[in-house]
Specification:
alpha+beta, seven-stranded mixed beta sheet, 18% strand, globular
């Protein structure tokens, strides 16, 4: 007689949330559209009435913010077992990265993304200095608190690689790795074992996790649930993408100067660009064309205005365009 089949386990109910990381560049600042007083990203549940995941996400952004979305692509699906549960359901988040231009949004607010990740702005060296002076000792203490020598060595290697120490070099794409390392070390307020300096300056004082905590400036503004992790993933994706696809043009006005174009790339990458190399690359790859107009009403010397060519997006999607990030 054949062995009986094991009883089928009852399916675990799963709910899906749709989350939008909407990016704009405004007056030289990288901006993120947020909700709930900056503690969340535009989001909502995927419903049966939605024709697709993307249409559902667009519908929720329209409902929550009344802000239009331009370029969009699916980012990542977050389904870790320790994510929130809702009425007995396991909740996963399907996230999207959208590029747009900043405008009025009802019930939402635009925030500088370095408000959440101050250590990621390496353009003037101030963030690196802040990280060294404030986070450095805490990361060193985390290494020293390892249960054994092998773990301590692994932690040291991760810190050096993520933060560009000991000659490793800063990699602007490691946004998520840096945030998750700080999370694991308890150095961001969302961490369940957060140990951050209090406002008085007492190092290593235990603090309650969550976005309500007054985290020190170097650790960035916390967000509810895992929205800051989702945001870090979006920033990393965009930083990688601008090196080989011309998506930055989705963030530019109809006409712009080459300096404005360079500054937009710099603020997204958090790094400075070599001016001559950048302009030579733009010229060689024929990314833009002159409009025939000049800047007006500026205090400095008038500059030529450019626009991106209509066929650039299609062409560069095939051939790519490497942006010269200075090391």
């Amino acid at each position: 007689m054949p062995a009986s089949s094991p009883p089928a386990s009852s399916p675990q109910p799963v709910a899906a949330d749709l989350v939008a990381v909407l990016v704009a560049v405004t007056q030289g600042h990288a901006r993120i559209l947020t909700t709930h007083e900056g503690q969340a990203l535009p989001s909502g549940p995927f419903e049966l009435a939605h024709r697709s995941l993307q249409s559902g996400m667009r519908a929720w952004v329209e409902t929550e913010t009344h802000h239009p979305i331009g370029y969009i692509e699916q980012l990542y699906t977050f389904a870790d077992g320790d994510r929130e549960r809702r009425e007995g359901q396991r909740v996963i988040s399907v996230s999207y990265l959208g590029l747009t231009r900043e405008g009025h949004a009802d019930g939402a607010v635009w925030r500088d993304w370095y408000h959440y990740f101050p250590w990621e702005d390496q353009r003037d060296g101030a963030a690196r200095k802040r990280l060294s002076e404030d986070a450095g000792p805490a990361l060193e203490a985390w290494c020293n608190a390892a249960p054994d020598a092998a773990t301590a060595q692994l932690r040291r290697m991760r810190i050096d690689t993520a933060f560009g120490l000991q000659g490793a070099g800063w990699n602007e794409d490691f946004v998520l790795q840096r945030y998750e390392l700080l999370y694991e070390a308890g150095l961001v307020a969302e961490s369940p074992h957060a140990r951050l300096p209090e406002a008085s300056g007492t190092p290593g004082a235990a603090v309650p996790p969550g976005p309500g905590h007054r985290a020190p400036a170097w650790s960035g503004q916390p967000m509810a649930q895992d929205f800051r992790r989702i945001l870090a993933t979006g920033i990393a994706r965009l930083r990688a993408k601008i090196k080989y696809r011309p998506v930055v043009f989705e963030l530019m006005p109809d006409s712009f100067t080459l300096l404005q174009l360079q500054q937009s790339v710099e603020v997204l990458a958090g790094r400075t660009l070599h001016k001559q190399n950048f302009r030579r690359l733009v010229e060689q790859q024929a990314l833009v064309e002159e409009t025939g107009a000049m800047t007006q009403g500026t205090s400095g010397r008038p500059a030529k205005l450019f626009r991106f060519r209509d066929d650039v997006l299609f062409e560069r999607a095939i051939s790519g365009s490497k942006l010269p990030l200075s090391r």
